[in-house]
User: Fold these one by one.
Assistant:
Number 1:
Amino acid sequence: MPETDQSVSPAKPLASATVAGNECVIDAQNLSLTFETGDGPVHALSEVNLSVGAGDFVSFIGPSGCGKTTLLRVIADLEQPTDGSITVNGVSAHEARLNRAYGYVFQAASLYPWRNIARNVALPLEIMGLSRSERRERVQRNLELVNLAGFAKKFPWQLSGGMQQRASIARALAVEPALLLMDEPFGALDEIVRDHLNEQLLKLWDKTSKTVVFVTHSIPEAVFLSTRIVVMSPRPGRIIDVIDTSLPRDRDLDIRETPEFLDIAHRVREGLRQGHSYEG
Amino acid sequence: MRPGRLSQSYQRVWPVVVVLMVLLVVWYASAVLLNTPFQRDIYQRAKLDNVSFTTLVGDTLNQERPVLPAPHQVGQEIYKTTVQKKITSKRSLVFHSWITLSTALLGFFLGTVLGVLLAVGIVHNRALDKSLMPWIIASQTIPILAIAPMIIVVLNSVGIQGLLPKAFISTYLSFFPVAVGMVKGLRSPDSSHIDLMHTYSASAWQTLWKLRLPASVPYLFTSMKIAIAISMVGAIVGELPTGAVAGLGARLLAGSYYGQTVQIWSALVMASILAASLVALVSMANRLVLDRMGMAK
């Protein structure tokens, strides 16, 4: 995809997600990121336009290598775009990171093995310089939120994978961010645990009215969780389709049998297929 | 005690006992073999013929200055110079061991601190990484026997005497494994663990204190096990050029001046017992600390 200096690319209507009336939390314009590797440049992101409104639950879905994780990392200022602009909460992604504007949940739980669960959740709070009593209160509250109150004194290796991931979600929530960035948090878990955690996450989102950006490669997961689904495609990483779903906010797992759900899932699958043929 | 536990401790003890027995047998056999020529000389001069084999063996194991002393001779010498001598006596092995041990411990402590500081600098500063590492490696290619007298002489000339110059030789040897191990340890956290610190916009100091240092603890202990053993070597080598006044190194040197092989061997055995105990102590501390950190294997 050629890039000119003033690439005011007339964003294809498909590739642009616009604010649906509410306050804009993330705004990306013509975002591109190219990794220079030994085998030549890799276009991880190309001309991505995206905006996420407050309270949205947005999922990035696509095959591996489509840049969905890279896009999330750019939002988190863990990766720098080579072109285009991005704002988070109206300021640059860098400034937003310094303001601790978001909580990030990694693919692996990434708990520190030498800290017990409570101290893992307390880690960001120690770095923020909160008082001991404030830390204890927030740890307690967030462990209760993810149903791990009884496991505060356990070390990570004493917990199952699903519990570890819940602890890492509690750690992200303890920062009390309005924005939650989640990179395939349930990817390594079996389907039963994943369903359960999806339901819990949705309840949490409904209760706290946070904005969530969620990376996944599971179609049912994306459709079940999201208010908006961003379908992505690899080489170069770009947005193929943006689907606003009309499912009610308080949904349960049974909704996956309804025609509306299946319709949306079908459209996501079509989008993914289209991206695939584009590549061929 | 439950039978399971008993058999378990048997299983742990047996290999050690077997190896010890084999070592003793080999030692005794070697002593007989190596001491026989001198013993035959003695018999010849005394015009003794037809000495029985058992007498020969008995005599080779009880010479005053054998080529290779027998284990029981070394044991007796150690007993005589530890239990039967006052600790303050110049002939007490405890006195000499304490001198060497305190030198080694001081050198080990300084070496560990120096190694950790160097590693922290190397990990945090690209220029230090490029410039320091070659020098650190080069420092270890110099034979310690050659540089030890220089260090003693130079430090003496600026008025530093006593324990410190010898301890510096231990430091010179022991900082190296700690520096190398800690560089690896401080760089051991997963990239997601480091990214996590970025998302909290943690300072470099916070990342060091809350992530890199705790992650490097297992590496530190592995390095310290090597460092404390070579600290003993450094302390003994450091005692040689000081004119053999005190310490296990002095006992070795004096023993070789006067052909006191039993004395040499008892000092050697003492040194290795000390080094083994020190390594065991570090291992114990390692287990305790990792257990408290929830990282015990």
Number 2:
Amino acid sequence: MELDWSIFFAQFISGLCRAMVLFLMASGLTLVFGVMRVINFAHGSFYMLGAYLAYSLTSLFATTPGSFWIALILAPLAVGLLGGLVEYLLLRRIYGKEHLLQILLTYALIFIFGDLVKMLWGVELRIVNMPPILSGFVALAGQEFPVYYFFIIGVGFAVAVGLWLLLRLTTLGKLVRAAAEHRSMVEMLGYNVNGLFTIVFMIATWLGGLAGVVIAPTVRLSLSMDMDIIIECFLVVIIGGLGNIWGALLAALITGELYSLGILVLEKYAMAFLFGLTAVIMILRPSGLLGRGVN
Amino acid sequence: MRIGTKWTVVALSSLVAIAICIATPACVLAEKPIKVGLIDSYTGGAAAFTKPALNGWKMVIEEFNSKGGFKGRKIEIVTRDDKFKPDEALSHARELLLKENVDFLAGTTNSGACLAVSEFAKQKKKLLMVHMARSERITEAKGHQYVFRGSPSADIEGSAGGAFAATTQFKKWYILGEDYEYGHSIADNFWKGLVRNQPGVEKVGEAWPKLQETDYTPYLTAMMAKKPDAVYIAFGASGMVTIMKQAKLFGLTEKVAVFAFSLADSAFPRALKDSMPVDVYGGSNYLWYYPDSPGNKTFVKNYLDFTEKLGEPDPYPSGIGAFSGYCCAKFLIEAILKADSVETEKVVKALEGLAIDTPIGKIVMRGCDHQAETPSFWGKIVKVEGFPFPVVKDVVMTPADKNMPTCAEVMELRKGDK
């Protein structure tokens, strides 16, 4: 195939788009693991709830011009609050207990939320309409791209920058980083680590909800969407190094681009690249790209 | 007469009554319903199609029951959710047979699940009526005495689509399919049908994203790089909505001619709403507005009345769901009546070659391979004045027999598979 740069560029943009979707999901997963040492299998459920809430909110405000933006603000907030409740009522009871219990609990949450969504929204296909302002096209380097691609990419970068600022510049961020290093020390200094964990879990589930709303206009909503995306997100988290947000960003970019550009080379077997990459990284760096090894 | 004698009389007469009862099946069996165990995916993306299918079954069965059923026995449907997974479908089939003692098995939407249940039905010598799964292997290579399909197979739909596509004279084709049984099966048959009718077409590329993929963006950009004139989208019911949303977002329908079977089905424009693409080519096994005949109008009205009673009025019965369920229920009931029995072997015999009346005319269950000869309807989907959503304007109907392998070919396939 003749090398056409505009095609290469188009694949690059779509890869970036995919990477940002993965990052939005993976950042919440890895944040919870890094700080709380909990593998939250139910992260996909919060994502699904975000998408379904976006459906309800956009239907409720269907006549209001900015219905999507209302959903973009309110749905993740609602999901984050629910996350806070889950942490306060359930997760808090199992810190320090064996990991099996965590897996059991977060896995059970998948079923509970799955049935909840089924009860509230039913099994019919639900879709969220594209906000009119984002449904146009942008011409770039001889190719046309949907505006929504750039919206997704923009949200992804905004979240990355926002998380960086939060963790570097605020007291909360410093506490989060400190608690991740040495929980008992932070406790001894008189800080309320339990409250801190609630906030971290709320931020993570807010991110999951946000991912759900951002994806919602591009997919059908279904009861299996919680599981459809989660495996790739776990791969990203593992490649990046468990608990490392920048690792997740790097891994998301690599997997997104590898996948997208891989299609150009071997369109039939694009998925194989991702699993191949995971295998190679697990052999060369078992703790992930930016992971610090298991202690 | 003393009290003792009186009791003796009572006891004796009840004994006689019981004896008579045992001798006449009507008495004992009056209470016992004929059970159909329906295994399908009631959660996940497919649920939007399995519910209308269940409605189709129930509509026929309710009418049958209200007229007294079969010798006083009513038909009862027992449903199980396989969550679109073959292993779950199989364990439900086992449970339905052993615990629920169902008389017949029916289902599924997932072709893999269907093949698993079909193998089980073969071992247990129980009749399985397939109502949505499309893989041609179900009635061809893997077909057997006890499996029937009252809905179309992928080769009926695929080759009808290919034959129709040949009339549009596009030269360079790209195939984008979901990487599972149905996706490959319908794409292969489409391609065969196209090549047979239009020699000289060229396939410039193909790609197979995994099932339940969330983001097809990289596939769409890569596909356009191959500069096809037309693309065939070989997606299952649940993936179709996502790919069409993203195709619309990407502006695909303005850049290239898009063909997709089942897109003409009423389920899609209603699910997709504003995201429903127009000026695309689609087909279906049934259209609620075609043919514009009294029979079809009555069916649509009956279905609306029936679903209204359930609290979910549906004025546009879907082909994949409602119509397929309706046909399968009808095949089963008419076979029971013809056989004058619910014994599997007799019903199997009765089903072979059985013709049922449907809103789109007679449909025959082919005797040799147990595949219903269902027609296909194709055309360009456009906005038409007076319709609630985009519909096929100039419908091209292809009868099934043109698109089915011959009986001899099917038997050859079955032999080769052993």
Number 3:
Amino acid sequence: MLQERPIRPMRVLLADDSDSARALISALIERMGHQVHQARDGIEAVDMCKALRPDVVLLDVMMPRLDGFGALAQIRSMPFERWIPVIFLTALEGGESITRALMEGGDDYLQKPVQINVLQAKLHAIGRSLLWQDELFEHRAELSDYRDRAEEEKQFARSLMEMLANTSRIQDSSLGILSVPAEQLNGDVVAAARTPNGKLHVLLADGTGHGLAAALNVLPTIEPFYSMTSKGFGLPTILAELNRKLYTYLPRECYVAASMVAIDTVERRIEVWNGGMPDVLLIERKSGSVRMQPSNSLPLGILKPSEFDAELEILTIEHDSVLLLASDGLVEALGNKDLALGLDRLADLVAASAPDVDVGELVYRIASSKKHAIDDDLTLLVVDCPASAVLPTSRQDGATTGKPTAPSGEWAVEISLNALQLRETDLVPIVLGFVRAMGLSEDDNSRLFVVLSELFNNALDHGLLLLSTESKDRDRDIEQYFKIREQRLAHLEDGSIRIGIRYGQSADSRHVELMVSDTGPGFDISTLDHGTELSRGGRGLKLVRGLCENLEFRGTGNVAVACLKVK
Amino acid sequence: MIQLTIHKSSETARIDLAGRFDFNGRKLMREAYDPILADSKIKSIEIGLEKVDYIDSSALGILLLLRERAEENQKKVVLCRAQGTVGKVLAVANFNRLFEIRE
């Protein structure tokens, strides 16, 4: 029986001043399969305990120099991580010392002379407790490993997020960003960039859940947003791509609520898409009147790519305004659960402030002071929308391109687009590709781009779709205008548009001639000189005239030719 | 924590939820709907939201997952009697385009 393997082999420290008792007890313990270290008094016991860190200590009560109780007190005061059970060895007649041994912090006692079966039973019981302790420590170590790893991963994700969602990348003077993350890691992502023709694209996305998981869900949207915007793609194409990416990469239960806007300060027109985000607000600075664009689409990543179709709403900028995009909780943060009251308060605030007040700062101050009321991330984007047309500048991303090398000699390209292509192709990137290929300066590129897209839109809207501009110049009708445009474009069966670009050089100047013609009926050219030109292009043509040396209409008015001097 | 009661009739199973419906409800919901999805007689799964007082984006995700699993098993999911904020959250997410929503 003594030879059985113990359930947990232990290192036993045995302290007894009697040589014979020590010899006997250690022989027994060793035969039970444990390791024994011997001490002859309390002081030796304390020292060896410190050095050896035994699994269990057997302490005789009566010992010279330092008795068992004194040794126990010192052992207990040592900063051991683990519990070291202590068993007192007491004389048979010592009922009082048994009580004291347990009261002073001993875990058990053994009466001398030691009986083998009792000793074995007690060591067995302690072995079992130590096994539990071992297991506990293992788990604790695993847990702390796990926590360290999780923390490390979180750090990694955070730096990844910061790199991708780097708001310093967003250096647009008309945009303000304010954010209060609910956890260390904000699940909201903000991205903003300008298209080649100066439209400002802004994306605010909020992933499922909070913190790390939410942030990771949003990641796949960032790069496509920037790269497609810089190529000049429109909102519907970009949104379809974001949806496709998220649908492909995210687990089925994850999605990304987002709002996205395109602000065109030349046309004074804002395209809004809102999928699962709070209302996008357009607030007039002077009157404080608020227009809301509620969520009218499913969030991104839910619909199959074949089912996704971004429906845009159009808002017009009638007076100097600010556009507010907020993630969850803005209205709550404004101090009122009731949407209407929250908005009223906001509108009053804006109207009561000076025209140049930083509206974002204003809202943010109130919102963050009420932060305790909400438990979600809060991000607020404020975009300045002036009513006076602002010509787009060509700076993008702060990127500096090398010195442009203009192609030598003269050359020309021409493309023709039929009704099907006009219906289904996003033309801006094609046009931009043309312009870029010319290797001109950014400034010239930007001018060419604006002129070309204006002439193209003119040919499409008025030449082929036969839309009247009268309605377009009255801001209130502009939404209607774009609705009709969309309907007519979807049903366009006939007609085509030809775009020609001709580059020429002379000794002291270089020029680009842009020709855009449509197969529509045109208009009466003879009326051009009487200012009625505006009836066929509105603001757009005025803008084009300002950007090029010469603009003329030929044929029946269906051919526009613009000439630009370039550097 | 969400509480959940299941009623089954011949072709319809109803899971009534009560309390706070968020990510923590995932396991309970799965345990509730897995046997229902496996039951070929059931054609429609109704989720009773009347007593839910809070719902978050993760919970909407749980519903999306259920919808997909149900479609694979030729069943439909109906969201029933959402109140107040819960109804508003479903509306903002435009879930009426994916689910039948019943008062």
Number 4:
Amino acid sequence: MAIRHYWSMAAAAVGFRLALVLFGGNLHLASRPEVSTPLTSLRRLAEGYWLKQASMSPYSGSMYHGSPLLLSVLGPLTSSKRSGGHHAHIYCSLVFVAVDFLAAMLIRSTGRRLQMARNRSLKSLDLTRSVNSSVNVSSGDAASLIYLWNPWAIITCVGSCTSPIENLMVVIMIYGACSRLAPLAAFGYVMATHLSLYPAILILPVTLLLGYGPDSPPPKVFLLKGLSASKVGMPENEISTGQRDFRQFAWKPVLHFTLWVFIWSCYVLLLSSIILNNVGGRQEMFEKTYGFILTVKDLSPNIGVLWYFFAEVFDVFRNFFLIVFNMNIVFMVLPLAIRLKHRPCFLAFVYTAIVAMLKSYPSAGDSALYLGLLGLFANELAEMQFTFFLFFGYIGVSLLSPVMHNLWIWRGTGNANFYFATGLAYTCLQTVLVVESVSSMIKHDRKLRLLVKA
Amino acid sequence: MAPPARQFSLLSLLILLAAASSAVGVGEEEFTEELLLRPLPDRKVLAHFHFRSSAPPAAAAGRHHHLFPKAISQLVRNFHISELELSFTQGRWNYDQWGGYDPMSTNSAKPPGVELWAIFDIPFTEINATWKNLTHTLSGLFCASINFLESSTAFSAPRWGFKLNPGNLRYGALPREAVCTENLTPWLKLLPCRDKAGIASLLYRPSIYKGYYHSQKLKLTSSRSGGIILDQTLTVVLQPESFSGKQLHSTDGQLHPSWSMEHLFNKRLSGKCLVSKSSRIFVEIEKGIVDKSGSEILWDNEVFVLSTTPDRVLKEIDHMEVQSSSLYEYDVSNYNDEKPLDVGITWKRPRIWSCTPPPYHASRFLMGGGNERGSIALSFLSTNLQKHLFSGSNDCLRKAVVFQVVPWYVKVYYHSLEIFIDGSRKDISEVLDKIHVTPSEDKLSPGTLEMLLRFPCSMQSATLTLDFDKGFLHIDEYPPDANQGFDIPSALISFPEFNSSRTYPGTDPFFVSPLLEDFKEDGVVKSYTEVLLVPLTTPDFSMPYNVITFTCTVLALYFGSLLNALRRRIGEEESELKKTAAKRGLIPLLLAKLRGKKIDKSNSGSSPASPSGSKLLLKVVFVAIVAVVFHYLSNS
């Protein structure tokens, strides 16, 4: 069931963005800690570009921590003169609007592929009627509309920071893997990793996607179905062929993917060193981008909790906690992959959510991405618990956080603890979201199994 | 044959002595002391003490010194310093009232706090390490926290904005350093007579620390050929107590307060420091006070009268010939205990005059509120000096060099530099001739900005703005009173086209005065701006434990609950629950035993309860034994 007026709604979202960019005046979103982080701030990019133009290393001065590719693409757009009451980086914002629209379209077609795969597997399990009777939304349309109309995605897009591009790369990777386009998936993977490092852990879902294809019920369900079918006396070969289609690990796209990852990374590194030629080397680039991400050097407030933690923690323990917090992201990768290996797309969503929650400089843009991806599983997660609590929790946090920030930084009446408390609440909310979505997905799989058994 | 031998040895000794004395005569250690007094337009008095000790090149005299302080010569030798300047300042020099276009303001007006710069004569790679050692040595020598300049976040290496150098200059400033007698005492120790005799005996602490401006400076110049020259200067601006005692700051028809040395320093001068080569006192009277141009200026005229007859009167010729002053010189060696010297001035008539201000009045201020970001603005206000100096030419350009050091926690966006001339925005390239930026590295090095600007001569005001973000520090990096804010050191503005040197022609060649030599030196007009106070946001200093526990709890919650969600197998759990519902726990079992009831064997599958119970009991006993043993062992 497709959503009616999809195109008009999407166009309205794009129009809304354009209106904000062109006529919104300077909303000062670029300096909001929720929107731009030291990694994604376009203002820092402009400073890096200026330094590069002055034949200095763009990374000198602890200002810019992004990729040299972005510097050469967006840099020339930032140097245009500010004019009157116009937005400071109007051309970049127009680029971001286009990028957001593209990401939404890719999410939509990813959703279509997921839907097709889902319908096929349900059909082969003879469950189409019993499952689809409750809800059947076109998840791709829903997800792309969520992404387009998500207020966080909008302020991220308008607020001149580079996270829309990072999000687009992740979406390209997932789309490429879903449609088994190894070069595209490899491009998205390499670029996303290059831009923000954390998407590196998405290698597992991408490999699974390329190997097994899009999400499907667990293989056990098919086995059960096969058993019951043989009991009933249905022709076995029909089911087993369907099963083979789904469950055979295809090595060829995975090998292609590996090859393309290698090619793209060589290409990206080559481009970076060409751009950074004479103004600092690749060594410095890695130190100032990945090193900056991993060692949490900037302690300016953001919506996460790590900034305050590292501003307060005793220096002796700093290294220990750096290791713990970075490992915390990696720790859950394998258990999740084992339990959800039949649903690689969902796995990618969970990883993105975990990264957005635990990364060293989180921003609203990261949340916008995983909330958009969440829409892809609208059918499976229909019976998720605490959705009311989560929805209003997100609204509450996004209203309280600017207030607390204002009280602390601008009025000087509150203190850092208030703002930190909203960060803690936000992390808790995301924890609940991740845990609930994982457990309801597991419940959904169990429900399918019970349905097949019955 | 003994007596001739003795004679011979005596002779040789004499010859040796003569040779030694002649060798000393080549380059002898010298010490001179001078004091300059000058009435200021705003009813204050400037007193500038100048002491120079010089040592011949090390090879000529060996390591022994008669007059020259040993500590300084060792310092120069160990750290291979070719130039060094250290100043301790309290208060701000008032460029408008006290002059901004004369050698005094160029040489002796220093930024508040401590300023240290040094040029080293060693390979570039060793300079930073040597600088660190030097700061520690100086901090020990002058009882000041100069060692804070050791950290790489505190010093910078300007290339041309401060002083042209090939990269061997290091500059550091501590704007908040308090200056007190504990810094003066070690400074006085370097003088051969300390403050026991000579001009230094005038340094009566309560009066010199009562002043409006107090700057104590030490300047070292060393070269292979010229030896070491140590200049110690102390500049104070004092307020002589007016006899009328009213309207201290006005310059209207009121008579200026009359003063004398005894009045200012609570002491008269009774002779020079015996080892000094020359000992002089100058009274400088600005041209504006006696407006009779050309004629011989008398020490007793219709405007003022000096208390003592001067030994000599020197007329200054400014190279611009704009405004010249006259110096009344007193030779202290002519005075002794019976006839002490007490130079003073008595005003006869109210007088209004002004000192020459710098070509542009430079000031610096912060813009914006809140603790997230802000802007530094540097404003230049023309003092219309050019109109006086070069009337007519309005198409010319005037150069100004800006040198500014910003600490790393003020994260300056150099691309946001904007220039406004006479209120309208100008393209940067129109004004900016040359720029050199060393961006700050977080927790590693400060940012340095050197700019060469060209202003049109007709310009009345110019403003430069730079945006910055305020950094957030780790709680250990905040100083004890964190909410007071952080200081950004003064910026230095120099005007390379304006020279502040003053020459005194007509003096005889035997008249040597280091003070006047200093005045004669090529001095570019400089002015320091205000120190800026930037308030930074503070975290809650009492919270580290709470923050650590809260954060760890949330992360543990995430980890635990997600792992739990993954591990759960609902189907098995349900069957497990059914099983446990059938089983009975240990405590009901024990209770039942205590009541003497027989366990219904048919109810709970035969006897697994008692073995499990005994197993548990065994475990408890084992743990208890281990605990007792551990306790015993740890106590013994």
